[in-house]
Amino acid sequence: MAIRPDKFTDRLVFALRPDAATIARIEAARDRLRAEQGMLGQPLDAADLQITLYHLGDFVRFPQELADKAIAAAASVSAPAFEFTLDQATSFKRRAVKHQPCVLLAGGEGLEALKAFHGQLAAALKAADLYRYATFTPHVTLLNDAIAVEQQAIEPISWAATEFVLMNSLPGKTEQVVLGHWPLQAH
What we know:
The protein has helices at residues 20-37, 64-75, 111-127, and strands at residues 10-16, 51-59, 82-91, 100-106, 139-145, 152-161, 163-169, 176-183.
């Protein structure tokens, strides 16, 4: 029997989190999109703005052994800091029409550096036997709405990635617990 999604208590993800200035630029882009598109969906909190690098899974109780393995794998990653740009907005189409995620996509400048870093993290997770899938569409979710935004250019938002984190994003709550963070090396 499958576990109902509302029964999950823990969601472990590796992510990049923006600094305060980048959050302000992301929120301004979101507010422009909401006004232009007539979207009424509730915006995500600033603390929830991130690029998910890897979703380790959803769990019915905190998976301490898996978290320990993930922390050890992350500690083995040695990568330089890098910059990338969010330059497109779109909606990911979902079956639940009222819940189309409106997102900003990373593209163009710095995308190869972001993908290279993701590859390094993926290699560390593979070595720890924690890697389950290969897809990676770097994006920041802004809100869910019944209105689907067609892909369009936005004023570019530069983002300097200086660290990555492992978080327990508690499903159904507006709380995220950082389990570890690892700095990216200065150039």
